[in-house]
Each structure stands twice: as structure tokens, then as C-alpha cells.
UniProtKB/TrEMBL annotation:
It comes from the Eukaryota. One of its GO terms (molecular function) is hydrolase activity, acting on glycosyl bonds. The lineage of its organism: Eukaryota, Metazoa, Ecdysozoa, Arthropoda, Hexapoda. The keyword Glycoprotein applies. Keywords: Glycoprotein, Glycosidase, Hydrolase, Signal. Residues 1-20 form the signal peptide. Belongs to the glycosyl hydrolase 1 family. This is Beta-glucosidase. The keyword S-adenosyl-L-methionine does not apply. Homodimer. Pfam families: Glyco_hydro_1.
Length: 498
């Protein structure tokens, strides 16, 4: 979720929400609530070309252009989880968590992305991991796609080629049939908005294309069709015997209007629709948000384009995508203040101009070491309520939530972060009665943080990336989270519901 905030117009005004020594709830989490930790293949595995793994877009991107990352480093070794998976499971066991979210590297099991060639050592890697998790009573939450498209498929056009949805469906079928007996919760794609905006909208992420006025919208449609295809395959062919759940993982900051003015309130809702409804509406309600259809259509015609740059969803496609969820997978990190600005004159086609708005952070929200992430715990409660009311998903799972710093072992800000956000979440569960069933903190380990390389840390376990052994050490936040998992309580003493 490393959105290029720096590239946006920032303007600061007074506060909207008080943050500081807020109250942390002293109630218990429900017994059924699942605590866990999360990771993703390219960020932790390494073993980039071992045992028959194919090349993916991040391998290619960073081998050819090492200066894409702050420290010039890449994920060739990362946390070496390809070799240290047993140690990782041991850590999860010590945490006492009941769920581990990880992703499968598509090219590790299908080197070219195509189901015509299965790489057995890659399959064995995931089978071993799944068996070890099972032996330790830890449920897997498996993401099929966390940004590491097989390079061959990128050469076919990547997420701009509609046939990639077919390849994804085939890949999903292979994964369901090989691993499905162990997996009861699947996530198809992680943050499709990030894939499209960062990979196809600016040069931040692989494959590094800049198609911010049109390619990003095509990418979105194809990823939604890919997700839906995987959902339908699971639903028809695997659900009857495997009895699991499947959905996709979406992300957004909580968008707070910068003032009480009607214009700013409308701007904040428009921000929600462009940044979140873009993917959530087709899946949970059917079709793109109206405000996107209207604005992009109008702007396209004023630009002299005879059709909307937002590709239409046919009725058949709407029906195919609508309802393809068993839960809502949510990545939430922060909040933004949204303000109205009059639309720019028509110039170049551009998502940010299609959307309008100014985005900023409240100066009272404590900053992390990265520009897009601030401590704004109220965001959690507001967002899960928003989702519950608007999308009625039945069940929400927090698939990512975490803090970024440059600390090594003592990380009090990360403790404050998880404590505050979990407290806000518990209020939503106990007071607002929102059905949030689990939480996988991001991240188990200090891992490869995309274009920040290893300079930014989000782990609850410290990893020494300079040591050949990639030594893991407990941080103070890890110890705190372990205690929360054990006691189901965020403070020293909790009380039962009165
Ligand atoms: C991504 C992770 C990333 C995290 C922190 C999320 O958007 O899914 O891969 O490490 O944000 O930037």
C-alpha cells in the first residue's frame, strides 16, 4: 500500500480527530476471534531461481533495474523462508497464533504461469509448509497472487491481456487441487488497486508501466475477471468437498473529510468510491461505482475520446463478478484527510484528475518512517463499519495491518499501533456488532518492503538481512502481540462483558 503520496498535492489544515493517549479497551476478544500473522512470497521466500522456479516480474524488474529500490537490493534471498520455513512455523507456534497468511509464488509451481508444466519441488515446498502448519494447529490463509506475476505472462501483456484471467483460473485450479485439502480460507488477489496503480500507473512497482489514464482501468477489469474466474472454479469444482471460503483482499485508508463542508464530505465519499468501490462495488454490489462511470465517461468525451476510458462491464460480466465472495479481506493501515478542489481543466487522461480531491494527513497523527502511514486507530472502527453497512459481506477478516519503522528490537511505536488499532477493532466488534472474525498482523518478519528494499521494517520479528543466516530475533512488539494472543486482552487486566 505504498501509494506515492509524495506525488499528490498536500495541504494541511486543523485536526479532525484527536489521537494521543486514547483509551484502550479492557474487554476480551471473543474466543472465536482468530489472531494471526501475514507475509507474502516475494517478500520472504528468496530462492528466486531454485529448484525449477520460473522468473517473475519482480525478479526481472529488479535484476534489470536495481536502482528501483532505495538500497539497490532485491528479493533474491529476502528472509530465506524458502529454506527457513520450519523456523518460521516454530515462531508462529511460539506466538500462539491460530492462522498464518502467506502467498504462493505462481512461478514457483508453474514456471511459465501456464498449467501445462507443474514444478514438483515448488509444489513440495508449499505442501511441506502446509503440513507443518497443520501439525501445529495453525490454519493457513493462502493468497494466490501477491504481485509476483510470472514473467512469461507479463510478456503476453500481463494484467492488460484479458487472457491472463484464463491463466489465473488454471493456476487457481492447480492450487485448489494440490493444496485445497489443507486450506479453508483462500484469497485470490491481494490489493488489485496497488497492482494496477503502482505497476501500471507509475514506475514504482513491476512491471513499471505508466498507463495512468487507461491501462490502470483495463488492469482492474482483468483482475476482477480473474478473481471471479477463480471463485467460480472453486465454487463449482472444489467447495463441495473442500468446504472452504474464498474472496479477494482489498485495501484502503479511511478517508475522512477535511472539514464538515458538503463539498469535502462529497470529496471523501468520492475518494472511497475511486479507491475502494472501484473493486468492492463490482464484487459486493455489481458494476463500477456510478461516480466513476459518470466522471470518467464525461472526461473521456471532453478529451475527445469516443468511449469511456473506464471499460464497460457487460451485464454478463457484472453477473459473473457480482457475489464472488465468502468474506471481506481487508488491508487497513492508515487514514487520510480528503478535501474538495474544483476540477482541473481537461488535459491528459489521468486517474488522479479523474478522481480530483486533495489528500493530506492530520499533523496530529503520529508519523511512521514512511510518508503514507500514520497512526490513526479510529480508521479501523470507521472502516469496518463502513464496509459492514455498505457491502454487507457477512464476515470481515483483517488480512493486513501494521506499522513501518527503522527500529531494530525495541519498537514501542509498533506496540502502540497494534494496541490502538486492535482496540478500535474490538469496539467495532463488541459495541457496533460488526462481524470481524480474524486479524493477521503485517508482518511476521522484517521482509523485503518492495521499492523500499530492506530500509523499512514492518515485522514483529527482527531479521538481520546482513547475516547469511537471516537471523530472526523477537522485537518488543512481537512479545506484546504474543501476550495479546495468549490473553485475548490488550491491557494488563481485562474484564468480561457486564
Ligand atoms: C502490501 C504488502 C506491503 C505492505 C506495506 C501492503 O499494501 O500488501 O505487501 O508490504 O502494504 O507496504
Amino acid at each position: 500500500m505504498n501509494l506515492p503520496l509524495k506525488t499528490l498535492i498536500l495541504f494541511f489544515t486543523g485536526c479532525c480527530c484527536v489521537v494521543g493517549e486514547e483509551n484502550i479497551t479492557n474487554r476480551y476478544f471473543p474466543e472465536t476471534f482468530q489472531f494471526g500473522l501475514a507475509s507474502a512470497a516475494y517478500q520472504v521466500e528468496g530462492g528466486w531461481n531454485e529448484d525449477g522456479k520460473g522468473e517473475n516480474i519482480w525478479d526481472r524488474f529488479l535484476h534489470e533495474q536495481p536502482n528501483r529500490t532505495t538500497d539497490g537490493k532485491n528479493g533474491d534471498v529476502a528472509c530465506d523462508s524458502y529454506h527457513k520455513w520450519k523456523e518460521d512455523v516454530e515462531l508462529l507456534k511460539e506466538f500462539g497464533v491460530s492462522v498464518y497468511r502467506f502467498s504462493i509464488s505462481w512461478a514457483r509451481i508453474l514456471p511459465d504461469g501456464s498449467a501445462n508444466r507443474i514444478n514438483q519441488p515448488g509444489v513440495d515446498y508449499y505442501l511441506n509448509l502446509l503440513k507443518e502448519l497443520k501439525a501445529n494447529n495453525i490454519e493457513p490463509l493462502v493468497t494466490l497472487y501477491h504481485w509476483d506475476l510470472p514473467q512469461h505472462l507479463s510478456e503476453l501483456g500481463g494484467w492488460l491481456n484479458p487472457q491472463i484471467a484464463d491463466y489465473f483460473g488454471e493456476y487457481a485450479r492447480v492450487a485448489f487441487s494440490l493444496f485445497g485439502d489443507y486450506v479453508k480460507r483462500w484469497a485470490t488477489v491481494n490489493e488489485p488497486k496497488s497492482t494496477c496503480l503502482l505497476g501500471y500507473g507509475n514506475t514504482m512497482d513491476a512491471p513499471g508501466l505508466v498507463l495512468i489514464g487507461d491501462g490502470i482501468y483495463q488492469c482492474a477489469k482483468i483482475q476482477l475477471l480473474a478473481h471471479a474466474k477463480a471463485y467460480h472454479i472453486y465454487d463449482k469444482e472444489f467447495r463441495p468437498t473442500q468446504k472452504g471460503k474464498i474472496s479477494l483482499v482489498l485495501d484502503t485508508p479511511w478517508n475522512e473529510p477535511i472539514s464538515d463542508s458538503a463539498n469535502d464530505k462529497e470529496a471523501a465519499e468520492r475518494e472511497m468510491q475511486f479507491g475502494f468501490g472501484w473493486f468492492a462495488n463490482p464484487v459486493y454490489l455489481g458494476d463500477w461505482p456510478d461516480v466513476m462511470k459518470e466522471r470518467i465517461n464525461n472526461r473521456s468525451s471532453q478529451e475527445g475520446i469516443g468511449f469511456s476510458r473506464l471499460p464497460e462491464l457487460s451485464q454478463e460480466e457484472i453477473d459473473y463478478i457480482n457475489g464472488t465472495f465468502d468474506y471481506f479481506g481487508l488491508n487497513i493501515y492508515t487514514a487520510l484527510l480528503v478535501g474538495y478542489i474544483p476540477d482541473d481543466d481537461i488535459s491528459v487522461p489521468n486517474y488522479w484528475l479523474d478522481k480530483g480531491n486533495t489528500l493530506s494527513s492530520d499533523p496530529s497523527w503520529p508519523a511512521s518512517s514512511t510518508d503514507w502511514l500514520h497512526y490513526a486507530p479510529f480508521a479501523m472502527r470507521k472502516l469496518v463499519n463502513y464496509i459492514n453497512d455498505l457491502y454487507k459481506p457477512g464476515e470481515i477478516f483483517i488480512t493486513e495491518n501494521g506499522w513501518c519503522d527503522e527500529e531494530l528490537i525495541e519498537d514501542p511505536d509498533r506496540i502502540r499501533y497494534h494496541k490502538g488499532y486492535l482496540s478500535s477493532l474490538l469496539d467495532a466488534i463488541l459495541i457496533d456488532k460488526v462481524n470481524v472474525v480474524g486479524y493477521t498482523a503485517w508482518s511476521l518478519l522484517d521482509n523485503f518492503e518492495w521499492t523500499s528494499g530492506y530500509t523499512q521494517r514492518l515485522g514483529l520479528i527482527y531479521v538481520d538481512h546482513d547475516s547469511p543466516n537471516r537471523t530472526r530475533t523477537w522485537k518488543s512488539s512481537g512479545l506484546y502481540y504474543k501476550k495479546v494472543v495468549e490473553t485475548r486482552c490488550l491491557v494488563d487486566t481485562c474484564i468480561d462483558e457486564i
